[in-house]
Amino acid sequence: MFTVTVRDHLMIAHSLRGETFGPAQRLHGATYVVDVTFQRPELDGANLVVDMGLAARAVQGIVAALSYRNLDDDADFAGINTTTEFLAKVLADRLAARIDDGALGPGARGLTGLMVRLHESHIAWADYQRAL
Amino acid sequence: MFTVTVRDHLMIAHSLRGETFGPAQRLHGATYVVDVTFQRPELDGANLVVDMGLAARAVQGIVAALSYRNLDDDADFAGINTTTEFLAKVLADRLAARIDDGALGPGARGLTGLMVRLHESHIAWADYQRAL
Amino acid sequence: MFTVTVRDHLMIAHSLRGETFGPAQRLHGATYVVDVTFQRPELDGANLVVDMGLAARAVQGIVAALSYRNLDDDADFAGINTTTEFLAKVLADRLAARIDDGALGPGARGLTGLMVRLHESHIAWADYQRAL
Amino acid sequence: MFTVTVRDHLMIAHSLRGETFGPAQRLHGATYVVDVTFQRPELDGANLVVDMGLAARAVQGIVAALSYRNLDDDADFAGINTTTEFLAKVLADRLAARIDDGALGPGARGLTGLMVRLHESHIAWADYQRAL
Amino acid sequence: MFTVTVRDHLMIAHSLRGETFGPAQRLHGATYVVDVTFQRPELDGANLVVDMGLAARAVQGIVAALSYRNLDDDADFAGINTTTEFLAKVLADRLAARIDDGALGPGARGLTGLMVRLHESHIAWADYQRAL
Amino acid sequence: MFTVTVRDHLMIAHSLRGETFGPAQRLHGATYVVDVTFQRPELDGANLVVDMGLAARAVQGIVAALSYRNLDDDADFAGINTTTEFLAKVLADRLAARIDDGALGPGARGLTGLMVRLHESHIAWADYQRAL
Predict the structure, then answer these.
(1) pLDDT at residue D107, rounded to an integer
(2) What b/e sequence results for F38-60 when a residue is b if at least 16 CB atoms lie within 10 Å of its CB, and e otherwise?
């Protein structure tokens, strides 16, 4: 099994609801360092898991759509706790849709899995892993 | 599949028995940077894998019980080589017991797996992964 | 010359004013990984630059006062761009005041310099360095 | 399941063929930071996944055979795109052969899997994972 | 004193002349992770050391001019050993020229120093520091 | 001003005396990731700060002399608190003596400064800097 990972980042504001979250119930923010991993059982004809240029651009597009925003104001997340683990899934699902759309090239249809890791600090991170 | 990871560390002395270990047969020590990963197929009602506050405190408790000690003097490890891979299992099993005890809250019973990674230097680390 | 550094982090929301800031003019947020460096020409009687326990606690106190907040609502920063480099100075100056107050112990009066580094992502960070 | 990982690195020149690669079609080079992960369901009698000394030496041998070379001149790679993901497989397969040869000791025959991760920069890396 | 640092990277081929370099006399290559640090005694009116957008673009331009090339073929380096420390100076001097040209905005003329750090692997890096 | 840095590590046991040290008064241990920085105002004829092969070997020799030992049993440290900052100075001074002895080659006599950084965990490190 092969994987390739590219790193990007996004910076957002948000608040979380529920006593569990303690001071994170207040409006605050985070930098998420984003690692996107593409998985594939065999390499393509160019010896690649995925076209890195197209992959990096697609990741950047999905990251940019959330960057420098207050997620509390995003209609997509109305009434939803935008935890790190939840956001990992949002990014993975949006990227999976782009792959289906052909944004990563026809070869990317050979991908079998996707993982998104969001680092929220030097001591905490979350992953979401899904099939394609 | 979702995971969340928290990082902590511990500093111990120990020695290892067997020629395989070369100079590490002498009494020496290590800083272990400890990454604990909690796994769960679906998020809970708050969009969490685990209550991070409770999780971090439980990890800290387990780490503190070993920290700043000579493991050669610990009755739990009498006659046992406290290698990095072995200690990863010790930490994982102790944390699994705390989860069973309810220390991470009732929601933590939805966790399905646990991984402990111990970094012993910038060039070596060990993992132990188990089901819950 | 000796230094000791301790790492902590804080998570805040804020916005920045001026076209220079592009999309960062919108309300967003950041995780700052905070490295505080204490400087001293000679070690004290215990062979220390500073009492690490007291130092870590003082850093934590200063970090906690800003953590999980929207800096746009903080009266101390009214009309001020809370850039990364500016916040590094805020943390350093507040810590210098705590050192003057004796919060790091009488020995900390032997410190001659302080540096605060704020990492805002894996590709950008800022430092502020001052004498004591 | 247990794993142990050791880190090394290699520095090579190469070029890649195909428009996908853009400027990387020119002769250029890379530092690969190499993480080799050894997997085993149970520890051996010394509480080890693998004899770290032998493992590190075997990794070093395989890395040295490629280091400080232009891969375009290596007969083993004639007509082949030496992408990061492809090179991860080369290293893993060569190491698997050394394990079969007994270079990591008889105990290493208990290993069940191997992963090689090659970091080509701070923002991109590739893995290859195989059974033993 | 304030500094701001931005990170980028470049990948090149080259060879080094002289027995000191051992196997690095052969044509090989490197990824350099590039950290560029801008220094300034006081912040500007926007509370900045430098306009980060302009700075990142200028760094990218200087990095791109060397990226994906064989430095042995670059007329600028004919008969010159392109060691890591030497390349750090090349990047710093080229960036200093861009600052003089106004590429980082008129405010960048308040900068007093520049440092370039090139990481060639996880175990070696070089810096060059100069006044502006 | 130029610098070159090489990284190595050592693993030791020790205890610290004085209430300041809390639980670290007990026999415990540490991994120190060791960064040694060599400084020089101008490069030598080969465009080097220092012969990296000789430098790495000298660092390794100094590190090996302390590695896998209980520092409480080392006559050189009898009655001395082997804090991280103190050990940074020990390594720097020993390396300075090796440079004087010519172990890094005659060219190393052009070095003007030396810094040793010891990372004791992901959240704490200490530096010692000296002239040559």
Answers:
(1) 83
(2) bbbeebbebbbbbbbebbbebbe
Give the residue from chain A lying closest to F123, CA to CA.
A122
C82 interface with E at CB cutoff 8 Å: yes
A69-82 average pLDDT score:
98
CB spacing of A47 vs D86 below 8 angstroms: yes
From the list B47, B49, B44, B48, the residue with the least C-alpha distance to B114 is B49
Interface confidence (ipTM) of the complex:
0.96
- Per-residue model confidence as pLDDT tens digits over C24-33: 999 999 999 9
Residue A109 has pLDDT above 90, yes or no: no
Q: For chain A, give the percent of residues with pLDDT over 90.
A: 95
Q: Is the dihedral of CA B65, C53, F88, E86 positive or negative?
A: positive
Which amino acid, one-letter code, is at C118?
L
Give F29 to chain B, closest Cα distance, Å. 4
pLDDT tens digits for B2-24? 999 999 999 999 999 999 999 99
E5 has a chain D CB within 8 A of its CB: no
Question: Does the beta-carbon distance from F29 to B31 stay under 8 Å?
Answer: yes
- A48 with D127: Cβ contact below 8 A: no
Contact assessment for residue B125 and residue B84, using Cβ atoms and an 8 Å cutoff: yes
Q: Tens of pLDDT along A27-45?
A: 999 999 999 999 999 999 9
Residues lower than pLDDT 70 in chain D = none
Q: Please name the residue ranges forming H helices in chain E.
A: 52-64, 84-100
Residue B129 near chain D (CB below 8 Å): yes
Beta strands A124-131 and A113-121: pairing type? antiparallel
Q: Do chains D and B touch (3 or more CB pairs under 8 A)?
A: yes
- End-to-end Cα spacing for chain D: 15
Q: Does F2 contact E at CB distance below 8 Å?
A: yes
Task: Specify the pLDDT at position F130.
Answer: 98
**Is the domain covering D2-131 a CATH 3.30.479.10 domain?**
yes
With CA atoms as reference, the chain D residue closest to A105 would be: D20
CB within 8 Å: B124 and D52 = yes
Distance CA A50, CA D128 (A): 14
Chain A residues in contact with B1 by the CB 8 A cut-off are 127-130
Interface residue B26 vs chain E (CB under 8 A): no
Residues of C in contact with F85 (CB under 8 A): 2-4, 43, 47-49
- pTM of this structure: 0.97
The answer to whether residue B124 neighbours chain D at the CB level (below 8 Å) is yes
pLDDT category of residue B29 using cuts at 50, 70 and 90: very high
Would you kindly state where each structural domain of chain D is located, as residue ranges?
A: 2-131
How far is B42 from D32, CA to CA, in rounded Å?
Answer: 36
Displacement of CA B110 from its chain's centroid (Å): 20
Q: Kindly state the helix (H) or strand (E) to which residue D3 belongs, with its residue range.
A: strand D2-14
- Mean pLDDT rounded to a whole number for chain E: 97
Helix (H/G/I), strand (E/B), else coil: A24? helix
* 3+ Cβ–Cβ pairs closer than 8 Å linking F and D: no
Find tokens 């992963």 and name the residue. Answer: D115
